[in-house]
Write a structure and sequence with these properties.
- The complex is a heterodimer.
- Chain A is an alpha+beta fold.
- In chain A, about 45% of the residues lie in helices and about 15% in strands.
- Chain A has a four-stranded mixed β-sheet with strand order 1-4-5-8.
- In chain A, a hairpin with a 2-residue loop joins strand 2 and strand 3.
- The radius of gyration of chain A is 22 Å and the shape is globular.
- Chain B has three domains: about 5-115, Acyl-CoA dehydrogenase/oxidase, N-terminal domain (Butyryl-Coa Dehydrogenase, subunit A, domain 1, Orthogonal Bundle), CATH 1.10.540; about 120-220, Butyryl-CoA Dehydrogenase, subunit A, domain 2 (Beta Barrel); about 225-365, Butyryl-CoA Dehydrogenase, subunit A, domain 3, CATH 1.20.140.
- Chain B is about 50% helix and about 15% strand.
- Chain B is built from eleven helices and nine strands.
- Chain B has helices at about 5-25, 25-35, 40-50, 65-80, 85-95, 100-115, 225-260, 270-295, 300-330, 340-350, 360-365; strands at about 120, 140, 145-155, 165-170, 180-185, 190-200, 205-220, 260, 265.
- In chain B, strands 1, 2, 3, 4, 5, 6 and 7 form a seven-stranded mixed β-sheet that branches. Chain B has a two-stranded antiparallel ribbon with strand order 8-9.
- The chains are: A alpha+beta, B alpha+beta.
- At the A-B interface, helix 8, helix 9, helix 10 and helix 12 of A face helix 7, helix 8, helix 9 and helix 11 of B.
């Protein structure tokens, strides 16, 4: 047993750190460190910088143009990006659809889609949830009917994150209603500029436009955009979920945000208050324990000696911790979390802040982060999965 | 970064587990507990396996193993709910003695290694809570002989031990860091009174009073040594707690799959399934922090103390949650003496209060907090 990274891993970390320091635009990291509003341009600029280096698909194998890093290297890359204040990579392209295309797509699909994902040029969205299909995703109804060499798609997707910027969307669609719900689902790639696709904003509780409804009205999709076999989409979706691995815990970002919480608590005069400070101390332990759990998973992946079935635990704990640090930041600012001045959450605003600039986004982030225990399989669904493992069911 | 065990460590684990499976079933433990908790015979069997010499240098008849081997052994003893004072006798005492003069080490370490001597730390005092620097027992040097006067509380296996390592103050006031010496007091020494009693977890402890009791000096100004030894003890009981929780969780899962109500196994009820998922969470967070504690034992004192406090806080939380919830998941049978679950629960409860409970260690974490965060901070 050894807690430390190897000299080679340390050297790798240094290399990443130096590159990120040189290439991450300061105006972007300033926004991330202060939870200010990120524009489409901010996100895409960083995606293109990574893409040029061949790192936008940092988990990709070499044969598809990725760096071919192992689990530990991927973790170190994610950590260095997070600590430096890089924006979260929008995962739908490089993290979600790309591995499915690599594993189940045709060579033509791979050649057509993977380069645009790696370069950060093509923005992908996810079409999974529907108004009637949340946790019970397999009950989805959005219909795709085969007509000659086309599918005709009708129906609605929802909670489509950043879908307003989407060029393409990968969808789970209903192609058969005869058997079990899971056996009639297909995985379809749809050009969002196709006639009949419309995107409508959903404004969230923090006032932000982060998610959308996507409507399909007799949208014609070439049959060549089907990934894998018809009615096997559920299998591919499960493969995708299994691929998300340790970064669902988001522990690197939690470390960065805990440091920010301490700065805010000091500025607001509650860091020396025992009652408040102890709450930070508890979160500190939570984050160390989560990080140790992540490192255990990485070690197991690297050596292949033991298999750890803790993915569900990582999602549950990681999301609870995210909620807790946003909550404590808001409570640290106390009454100065109450004002809702949207302009104060934009970089470079010249107006009069109420209290201090760092107070402006705290409540909004707290509100927004309630999503973390809901999305990606709600924590209650995760508990069902964990219990099945413990009980051997 | 590597969390795999070596083949030797796995063999050590297997050896302890085989002994538990063969020689330390619940009936034996239950019998010992009902008879007052005397475990010297069990401790001797651990010596036959070589375990009591685990942390003692080979030159003194031990195996010279480190914290990871200690962790492996303690996990297995926890899984088997072995109520012998292993962490105290085989981990804490040798660590304290490592600061002693060569002749004192030569006198005691071989006997500890073969279990002919059980030596335990007697450090707790009535008003000290879990603070190691709060020492009122006095040490006086009359010529070449040291004598101690004072009282020590809840000394593990106190009336079964052959000697005690006693922190006593030869200078300074109650809470001072300086002026605390470590001394060995042998059983039967003049002016030493030992009043033993059973403990909640089926073992024993004792109250000690010392009145001008002759003692052998280990070291003066030895608070850093005491802290180091207690930290090693904390890492050991964190590992033991993981073993206890791991086994209790498995027992509970098995019960949920067999117990039927409303015509179905109770494991089919979502309210209970979510509860066992939360138990699994606390178990794995605890296991992660147990590794952390043992891996950080060799660090510089400030780093080590912070890490140990973080680990003990997490384990304290985990132990209380897992213990309470596994009893609840059993229903009525969980609160009986005849069934094994309650014994696991009581052991967890005592372990939380050993070497500092959760509130104490939360205070330590809070006081030692720095601007950076995480495992490598």
């Amino acid at each position: 047993m050894d807690l430390n990274f190897t000299p080679e891993e340390q050297a790798f970390r240094e290399e990443i750190r130096a590159w990120v320091a040189e290439n991450l635009p300061q105006d972007i990291s300033h926004k991330v460190h202060n939870a200010l509003h990120l524009t489409k341009d901010d996100m895409q600029r960083w995606a293109r910088i990574l893409g040029k280096k061949g790192w936008h698909g940092w988990a990709w194998p070499k044969q598809f143009g990725g760096p071919g890093w192992n689990a530990v290297q991927r973790h170190l890359f994610e950590e260095e990006c997070a600590l430096a204040g890089a924006p979260r990579v929008v995962p739908f392209g490089p993290v979600m659809v790309a591995p499915v295309i690599m594993a189940f797509g045709t060579p033509e699909q791979q050649k057509r889609h993977l380069p645009g994902i790696m370069s950060g040029e093509v923005w992908w969205s996810q079409g999974y949830s529907e108004p009637g299909s949340g946790s019970d995703l397999a009950s989805l109804k959005c219909r795709a009917e085969r007509k000659g060499d086309k599918y005709i798609v009708n129906g609605q997707k929802t909670w489509t994150t950043l879908g307003q910027y989407g060029d393409w969307i990968f969808c789970l669609v209903r192609t058969d209603t005869s058997g079990k719900p899971q056996t009639g689902i297909s995985f379809l790639l749809i050009d969002m500029k196709s006639p009949g696709v419309s995107v409508r904003p959903i404004i969230m509780l923090d006032g932000g436009h982060e998610v959308n409804e996507v409507w399909f009205d007799n949208v014609e999709v070439p049959a060549e955009n089907l990934v894998g076999e018809e009615n096997k989409g559920w299998t591919y979706a499960k493969y995708l979920l299994a691929h998300e691995r340790t970064n669902i815990a988001d522990v690197n970002r939690a470390k960065r945000e805990l440091e920010r919480l301490k700065r805010i608590a000091k500025a607001e005069g509650v860091y020396e208050d025992t009652r408040f400070r102890d709450e930070i101390a508890k979160l500190e332990v939570d984050i160390v324990a989560l990080e140790m759990m992540v490192l255990r998973v990485l070690s197991a992946e690297k050596s292949g000696k033991q298999s750890l079935d803790v993915a569900g635990l990582l999602k549950i704990r990681g999301s609870e911790i995210q909620q807790r640090y946003t909550e404590l930041m808001m409570l640290a600012a106390g009454p100065y979390s109450v004002p809702f001045v949207k302009e104060a959450m934009e970089a470079g605003w010249q107006g009069d802040y109420v209290g201090a600039a760092h107070c402006a986004p705290l409540a909004a982030t707290y509100f927004n982060y309630r999503k973390t225990t809901i999305y990606g399989g709600s924590n209650e669904v995760q508990r069902n999965i964990v219990s099945a493992t413990v009980l051997g069911i | 970064m590597d969390f795999d065990f070596t083949e030797d460590q796995e063999s050590l684990r297997d050896a302890v587990r085989r002994w538990v499976d063969k020689g330390f079933g619940f009936e034996r433990r239950h019998g010992i507990a009902k008879a007052g908790g005397r475990t010297r015979e069990v401790y001797g069997e651990l010596a036959d396996l070589g375990l009591t010499g685990l942390a003692i240098p080979e030159a003194h008849g031990g195996m010279g193993f480190g914290p990871i081997e200690a962790m492996v052994v303690n996990e297995e003893l926890g899984r088997g709910l072995v109520n012998a004072p292993y962490a105290h006798g085989a981990i804490v005492a040798p660590t304290l003695l490592s600061a002693a003069p060569a002749e004192v080490q030569a006198q005691w370490l071989p006997k500890i290694a073969d279990a002919s001597a059980l030596v335990v730390l007697a450090h707790q005092e009535r008003a000290a809570r879990y603070r190691l620097n709060h020492v009122t027992t006095r040490a006086t040097n009359a010529g070449t002989v040291w004598t101690l006067s004072g009282a020590k509380s809840v000394v593990p296996a106190g009336d079964e031990a052959d000697a005690f390592i006693v922190p006593a103050r030869n200078a300074g006031a109650e809470g001072d860091a300086a002026g605390i010496g470590l001394f060995i007091v042998a059983k039967g020494a003049a002016g030493l009174a030992v009043r033993g009693y059973p403990t909640q977890d089926g073992a024993r402890a004792a109250e000690l009073t010392l009145a001008n009791t002759p003692a052998t000096l280990i070291a003066l100004d030895a608070l850093p040594v005491l802290e180091q030894a207690v930290d090693a003890g904390i890492a050991a009981i964190c590992a033991e707690a993981v073993g206890v929780m791991d086994r209790l969780t498995a027992i509970t899962a098995e019960y949920m799959n067999t117990r039927k109500q409303f015509g179905v196994a109770i494991s089919s009820f979502q309210a209970l399934r979510h509860r066992i998922a939360d138990v699994k969470m606390q178990l794995e967070l605890g296991r992660s922090m147990s590794y952390y504690a043992s891996l950080k034992l060799g660090e510089a004192p400030a780093v080590r103390r912070r890490a140990i406090a973080q680990a003990k806080y997490q384990l304290g939380q985990s132990m209380r949650f897992v213990g309470q919830q596994c009893i609840q998941l059993h229903g009525g049978i969980g609160v009986t003496d005849e069934y094994i679950a309650s014994h696991y629960f009581k052991r967890l409860t005592v372990l939380e209060m050993t070497f500092g409970d959760s509130l104490h260690h939360l205070g330590e974490v809070s006081a030692r907090m720095q601007d950076t965060a995480g495992v490598f901070a």
